[in-house]
Structures are given as structure tokens and as C-alpha cells.
């Protein structure tokens, strides 16, 4: 009995988490490389999980025979929607309402399948509790098995299925697994509902909870306890999504990076619901306050050069907090007779965290304020104790007076530190108050409200007040479904910069004499600069030129009279910024009649007439990440279709994390392109006079060697053949893996 139910729950959870990255990836060609694709998908998954748990809770009121019959019937109904995929929402525009479009596409495509499979975890545990098995009174071990299956399914996709199989094979395999799950669920229902337990079997009284006494059978559960369950589940869920946003914003929105935070989130459940859950919880509760101060203290700081190191710290903090809070939740679990209700409220908390980060936060905040807010909530919920008894006794004499003094000191020191940083004060005037804030925070461990307030003021001191100040400046920062954009003035070189996440996306000089000069990656000596300047010689005065990714509009200043220019841009916010001369004036000065195609570039290019362009420059980035669906063989086939026979394709591959030249080389070899690469590094002479040119890596592709020779003759750059790597294959819509393209991890200072 134990083996049968373990296998059933394991397979169901494996399939449930295998389908998540698989189907979310199908949305990338429509919604680009936005990290929010995964966050909104996770919101749907958590909502569908909640429906599955609600269905299981309601179904558990019937006899097991009735439950089995109804559940098998739902399985058969859901099977009619196979194979898995996205539906096409009617009346919803993916460009104007991307989040709503994705929710509708997921609901119509896999909604019934997901709810059906999600229900089997609590339902199988409830059936097992009624089975008469000797372990029936303690079915919670099955939840650890469920999360083990979830974790394996989650990791299997990016490390096995995605690198080794194409999407059609993946969906077929999932359908076969669904059929196997149906058979196992039917067998479980038959075993419990139709085969009476052995007469000798007696269900023992419920054992004490591993981390506290379980509620007695039939005991009431108050609303205060339910709310606590919800909060303990919601905070780790929200932290998991906000951590995902950080990682995928700077690298690439794709399954391999989606699964890292979610995998750690699942590991926390495995640890706390396993046999040694109490010990894991105690360790996490002990360590969590210290890690919150070390890593959470910079939660409002704009991380730049140390983004990789901060990303690793973010993942460690997520794991420890999730173990601490989920362990506290597991320690308060009720009697198995209330099992489905417990999972229902826990699922509701997870969905609440997903709703906050996936939909509400992008609408409420212009920066990722949800992450520090969730850290403060975690500090409030941690059942931490004072580090020593002596520290605990400090607050016993006059706790109100000491607390009031600490609150005033924290607020004053937090404001002063932020002010000292802004005026570049002496280092001691910055370090000393930060040390005092940290000391008060350490002394406040075990007093949740005061500790949370100390953590908040540490965040405000280390960049928080600056972030809030930027948010109060009209037009300085905007947030959309596709990212967070900040506009900053750099007085050292008299320039204005556009940043997406931690990545520079464009610079314009505030000096009128240089305001028409394309800067940053678009320098005249860069690959794109050289080809754009050579366009009249290569194509005549009436060339038709297009580029993907508007940014600040720098490329528009290469436009010549008589040329027809078009830009493909997915985000209306970027269009508004680039066309507003008060923010950036490249477009208004150089090409005010620039045609804009709003929407995903790949879909818009597919609708563009064939052989209508002479030059196409692909420069789409989501922070430092190039959207995956714009780097596949199918995408390059679309580029070839819209270019004339002698047309030129340019691809920008500058990247901190991935080696993309071998990917393009593999695509070029399979698709008949000729390709060269120009790695431009500006000299001190190039950057004289407040010019801010930056290093860039551009690839130029043509259909023939003769046309490539003409391009090389018209430019004077050091164009090199693309490097080939046998381990890197051409990406396609059905098959792509970034594992062979990852650059060695670089941590500054090490």
C-alpha cells in the first residue's frame, strides 16, 4: 500500500512540474523574453493548484468509492484536451494585455489537465489515511514524496528533456505519463474503496507532530490559525518569484533559469516534511536572521557589477527562509482528518504570494519593492529566539522604553547613512551608523517586530531612500510587463542613460554637439555602426532598413535622407521613452518619422512582406538577455524571408553570461548564411571628449560570399569568422539548451 501510493503521488507531481517549464516556453515566441512570462505562468500554476486542492477537499467528503469514480471520470475528460499546449485566446491582444493573454492561453490549453493532476497529491494522502495501512495515521511522508517528484520533474526538463528531445516528443511523453497516472490512481481507488483492510489492521492513534502536537481528530481550526498558515505559505512563494525575476532579468528567460528558485522552494518542502524536518527547521530558524541582515540588508540596493554574486546570495537566502517558514508551517499541521483543508489553505497562501508578485507588484511599484517587503514579512514571521539568554534578559527590565529608544535610533541612523552615501561622506560616517543598525538588529533577534523594523532601516540606509527618491521623480523610472527601466543622468560625462535591470541599454550625450552621435554599443566603429554608414554604398540612397529593439533610439541617427526606416518594439513604454524628446532625443532629432511596429518582433516580421528589407539589425534585449525565440533557426528563416537577396542581417550578441557566437555559427552553417563577427573595444582616443562608446559584439550575415566580400570592402572593421563549437548545436523552437554556451562564472574580486 505504501509503495503504491508513493509511486502514484511521485508520478503525479513529476508530471505536474514537468509540464510547467515546457508549456511556459511555448509562450516565448508571443511574449518575448520577459521574466514576467514565468511569473505569470507561475501565478496560473498556483491558482490551478489551489483549484485542484479545493476540488480534492470537497471530494474528500464522499465515500472513497464515489471519490474514485468521480476522479477517474475527470481524468478521462481531461484526456480529451491532450496533447498539452497553449490555447489561442479570443479577443485578448498579447501586446496590450500580455499577462491576461498568457493566463487565458494557459487556462484554455492545460487548465483541466493541471487541476486534475494537482488534485491527486492531497487526494491520495486522504485515501491513504483511510486505507487501514499501519502508516495510515501519519500520511505526511507522502507530501515529501510529492515534492521529491516535483523537484525531479522540474530538473528533468532543462537538464534532460530540453537538451535531448524536441517539443513534439516532450508533449507525447507527457501524454503517456498522464495515461500511466490514470491507471495508478484507479488502482489506488480500487485498493482503498473496494478492498477492505485486513482484519488485524488497526489504525493507531495519531502520533505527536514532529515539531509540536498535532490537533486532535475533529478539533476545530480557528481563523487565526488559518491566516497564519496562509502567511507562512505566501511569503516563501512570493520570494521564490521575486528571486526568479532577478535571475532571469540578467541572464535569459528560459527553463534552465526558471527552475533554480522553484527547485530550492520544493527542496524546502522535502526537508521539513521528511523524517528529520524538525532539525532542519531549527537550523534554518537559527541561521535565517543572520542571513537576512547580511544579504537582505542590501535588498533595496541597485546591484550592478556584483549581480552574479548577489544572485547566488539571493538563492541561498530563499532556501533558508523557505525551510524556516515551511518548517514552522509543517510543525503546526493538524490531524490527518483535516489534511485536505490544511493543504487547501497552504495552497491559497502560495497563490496569494504568486498573485502579489506576478500581477499586483508590477502594477503597484515602479521597482522590485516586493522583494524587500517580503523579506521584512519573513522577519516578522520567523519564530527566532534571542541569540543568548543574556541578550534576552536585556529586554526584560524596561522593554517599552528600550524598544522606543531602538526605534528612534534605527530611523535616525537609517536616514543619516543614506544621506552620507548621497554626499559621498567620509567612510567612517557611513560604516559606523550601519554597524550600529546591525548591532541593534542582532540584539533584536527574538523580538520579531523590532527585528523587522531594524532590517527595514538597514535596507533604507543601503540604497532604499535613494530608490524611493528616484520613484518620486516623474519619468525617471517605469515598469511594465517586460521590465523595469531607469533613466539616470551621469554628470561625469554629461550623458543620460537608460538601464533595464542592471544592464545599460543606451546612452545619449547631453552636449548638443554630440546629441546626434550614437553612443554605447552603437558607436560608428562598432559592427552595426559600420554597416549602417555603408548602407548608401551597398544599397543606394533609397535603402529599406529595420531594426529590432528600440532602446533609446540610437540607431535612428544613422538614417540618411531617402531611406525608409522601421523599428520593431514589443514594449509601449520603451516607445514612449524614445519618442519623448525630454527623455531621449535621438528619434526626434534624426528620424521623427520612424515607423514603429508594436508587438513581438518575430510575429511582426512574419507578417512583413517578403524581400522588403535591405538591412535588418536584431538588437532585442531583456536586460542582459537576448530573447531565446529570436535566436532559433525558425527566427533566422523569418529574417531571411524579409531580406532581399543581397540583404544584410546584423545580430547583437554582447553578453556577460553566454557565448552566443557558436549558436549563430551553427545556425548559419545549417541555413546557408555567410557570417563574420566584429568585437569592438573602444580606445581612449575613441572616447575622448566625453564620448561614451562601449565594447560590443556584432555579427553580420549575408546569403553569399560575394555579398559578404562587398560588405567587408565597404567597412573597415576587423571582421573575423565565427568560432565553431561541436558541443553547441543550432537552436530551434523545439530544441535549445544554454548549458554548452554558459561562460565561466565570474565573481569580481575573486
Task: Explain the overall architecture.
The chain is of the alpha/beta class. The protein has three domains: 2-197 and 222-358 and 366-381, Growth Hormone, Chain: A (Up-down Bundle); 389-471, no CATH class; 521-741, Rossmann fold. The protein is built from 24 helices and twelve strands. It has helices at residues 2-26, 28-31, 36-59, 64-79, 98-129, 141-164, 167-193, 223-250, 255-273, 277-294, 307-331, 339-364, 370-381, 389-394, 399-422, 427-443, 448-471, 527-539, 572-578, 586-590, 601-606, 633-642, 661-671, 705-714, and strands at residues 477-480, 483-490, 495-500, 503-509, 544-548, 564-569, 595-598, 613-618, 643-652, 674-680, 696-702, 720-721. The strands form two sheets. It has an eight-stranded mixed sheet with strand order 7-6-5-8-9-11-10-12, with helices on both faces. A four-stranded antiparallel sheet has the order 1-2-3-4, with no helix packed on it. Helix 8 (223-250) packs across helix 12 (339-364) and helix 10 (277-294) runs antiparallel to helix 11 (307-331). The longest helix is centred in the N-terminal third of the chain and has 32 residues, at 98-129. The radius of gyration is 28 Å and the shape is globular. The model is unreliable at 199-218 (pLDDT under 50).
SSE blueprint:
Blueprint: H1 2-26, H2 28-31, H3 36-59, H4 64-79, H5 98-129, H6 141-164, H7 167-193, H8 223-250, H9 255-273, H10 277-294, H11 307-331, H12 339-364, H13 370-381, H14 389-394, H15 399-422, H16 427-443, H17 448-471, E1 477-480, E2 483-490, E3 495-500, E4 503-509, H18 527-539, E5 544-548, E6 564-569, H19 572-578, H20 586-590, E7 595-598, H21 601-606, E8 613-618, H22 633-642, E9 643-652, H23 661-671, E10 674-680, E11 696-702, H24 705-714, E12 720-721
Parallel strand pairs: 5-6, 5-8, 6-7, 8-9
Antiparallel strand pairs: 1-2, 2-3, 3-4, 9-11, 10-11, 10-12
